[in-house]
Write a structure and sequence with these properties.
The complex is a heterodimer of chains A (about 280) and B (about 475).
Chain A (H helix, E strand, L loop, with lengths): L1 E8 L4 E7 L1 H6 L5 E5 L7 E4 L2 E3 L4 E7 L3 H7 L6 E2 L1 E6 L10 E7 L3 H13 L3 E8 L8 H7 L2 E6 L6 E2 L2 H10 L6 E5 L2 H14 L2 E5 L15 E4 L2 E4 H4 L2 E3 L5 H7 L4 H13 L12
Parallel strand pairs in A: 9-10, 9-13, 10-11, 11-12, 13-14
Antiparallel strand pairs in A: 1-2, 1-7, 2-6, 3-4, 3-8, 5-6, 14-17, 15-16
Helix pairs in contact in A: 3-4, 5-6, 6-8
Chain B lengths: L21 H4 L12 H9 L19 H9 L3 H9 L5 H7 L13 H4 L4 H17 L15 E5 L3 H12 L3 E5 L8 H4 L8 H13 L3 E3 L10 H8 L2 E4 L5 E2 L12 E3 H10 L17 E5 L3 H12 L3 E5 L11 H9 L3 E3 L2 E8 L5 E14 L5 E5 L5 E4 L2 E4 L3 E2 L3 H5 L25 E3 L2 H4 L4 H18 L13
Parallel strand pairs in B: 1-2, 1-4, 2-3, 4-16, 6-14, 7-8, 7-14, 8-9
Antiparallel strand pairs in B: 5-15, 10-11, 11-12, 11-13
Helix pairs in contact in B: 2-3, 2-7, 3-4, 3-7, 4-7, 5-7, 8-17, 12-13
Classes of the chains: A alpha/beta (about 280), B alpha/beta (about 475).
Chain lengths: ~280, ~475
Amino acid sequence: MYKITHVKRITDTIVAMDVEAPLVAKVAKAGQFIILRIDETGERIPLTISDYDREKGSIALIIQVVGKTTAKLYGLEAGDTLLDFVGPLGLPTHVAKWGTVVCIGGGVGTAPVYPQAREFKKAGNKVISIVGARNLESLIYEEQMAAVSDELIIATDDGSKGHHGFVTQVLQQLIDRGEQIDHVVAIGPLPMMRAVCQITREHQYKTSVSLNSIMVDGTGMCGCCRVKVDDEMRFACVDGPDFDGLTVDFDELMMRQRRFIPEEKMAFDLYQQSDCRGGCQNCKK
Amino acid sequence: MQGGVPKLQEIAPRNPMPAQPAEVRNANFKEVALGYTEELARAEAERCIQCKKPPCRRGCPVEIDIPAFIKLITEGKFLQSILKIREKNNLPAVCGRVCPQESQCEKFCTIRKKYGAVAIGRLERFVADNETKAKEEGRIQAPAKPTTNGKKVAVVGAGPAGLTCAADLAKLGFAVTVFESLHDAGGVLRYGIPEFRLPKHILDVELDYIRALGVEIRCNMVIGRIKGLEEMLAGEFDAVFLGTGAGLPYFLGIPGENLNGVYSANEFLTRVNLMKAYQFPRYDTPVTVGNRVVVVGAGNVAMDSARVAKRLGAEVTIVYRRGHAEMPARLEEIEHAEEEGINFHLLTSPVEILGNNENWVDELKVVKMELGEPDESGRRRPIPVPGSEYTIEVDTIVIAVGQGPNPLLQQTTPQLKVNRRGNIVVKEDMVSTSIDGVFAGGDIVTGAATVILAMGAGKKAARAIAGYLGYPQDEPTEDSN
């Protein structure tokens, strides 16, 4: 059992959570992920690590409600436990001194960008961060990102803070103002990462994206998370989750992410119909 | 020659295994084979002629004294019989169910040719299940923990090889910790073999026994990520056994494999077995099959996948590029699949998977094959028949064409020597690796094979580890092995 030590609900669909997992926290690196299972009937879901506290022995996660499991996670309190928590999984981000690194986070994708931005900064890079959110309320990790960035630019869809529009527009502005860019990191929804890569491809900027495809075991055994990268089949869990964004087949991946939409919807609907949040028999056949 | 045994003409025919009728079982996940009753077990045990030099033992990778445990059954001493097996085998209820006895112990049975081999596997299962019942009824206690000798051994992977190695070492007094990457122990017994062939509560009982010997099993621990081999050997453990298995799914390398609705057998079976997707939505993990499923391949994993898909309500077809005689699955599995209504398109090879514009599988394009000269595997090489392509309409495709070695530990331990295929290289003793104090066995060394061969390797490694740590064990004699 893995204890949840801290819960902070950021919006009505986004929650920040610290989980006690000292062995994972001891060795976790930027770019890696964990897989958790809430309870005996739960599914295994991968979540990219937002931060780790080696002293406290905890892993920080940011979770957005997209279905039953994430909705259940949203409802958990500090002191509750998770049945299973395994990690760190995946390859750590390759951190080097590139020069100027632009770190782009979209929505809850900003959380896993943060440890990468921090490590790039530590490695002596100039870090320019672009953080996008739907609105001011759902903006996350602003302070943390500011602390590790030479420049931080906020973009919101509704203009409630910073640039009124998308992170890609901000990236284009950086390019237009003549910023010398050596490396780009983009993490967020697939359409956002694809859009970033469309821009960076034109300039042949090296672009790293983090893929959180559907997984079961997360150790290279099931092949569920396979993605086409540079026309080859790769497993996001063991070959990634970071990949060269310029060679990722985003269109195929976006369709693969829809494999279980009807089932996910059914499980979520049943869950929302039940008042007892897990204890009732509604969802049990 | 065999003196003091029943005269051969008195031997009754082999007792069939009671089973769920095919048309009933192909719609449920309950166990297919129901097990011998006490009467059937005793009658079957009576068929054993108690050979002085029992050839059956030669066929057992874990060295069970087969005639001795069978004799105890004839005497009605079922609990003593299982202890006789447990001297050598730590997973008897599993082996009694999933071992290919026909190519091992029963293959060498003296009476096989004339009367049919003694059903050794079924008898093993009977005494194992009888013990479980006795335990549940509180008639027997868990085994006593052996006294420890202070040496610590880490086992990586809680599958058949690792569990066997761990249990054997624990019996010798070693303090053993097993590290498992999944949330539950058993390896392929947990994620691969379906409930209807190996009920998971049977596996749980076996694990309880191994834990009672003092073995600690730590799940959710991915060695190579959370902890490296060097770190483990630097003070924490005196030796390490690697039984990480063949978990890497092979795909066909044909167009369309990334379409939605194409599963590796590993994904399909893991969803159903480990995650219990057949009970969705009670369990949260989904699996979809639609109406028409094609399983590519004809090994045991393919049969398991096909029979699972059938139970999920689909019309299922196996597509295999060679003929009936070349199918690598156990005969019993093939027969069960045939009885349950699985279709077989043999001498048929997939060419391309065709999908619709939403990336979902629509059709499988295949080509007819004919058998040519034998290839390096000794089986006749399949050759495509020109112009014989046709398509099969399909909603789901399960690729079951084999698995490679799990690459994770090797990736993170460059000094561990592996071969071209990624299997760990072992020395002449078959279990020592290129790193001092690190041993390996099972599928990670041999490539994908059987549960029992992995167990045999685990047993051999346990002996080697004991010797390495200063507690040499006798090798099994010629007679018994």
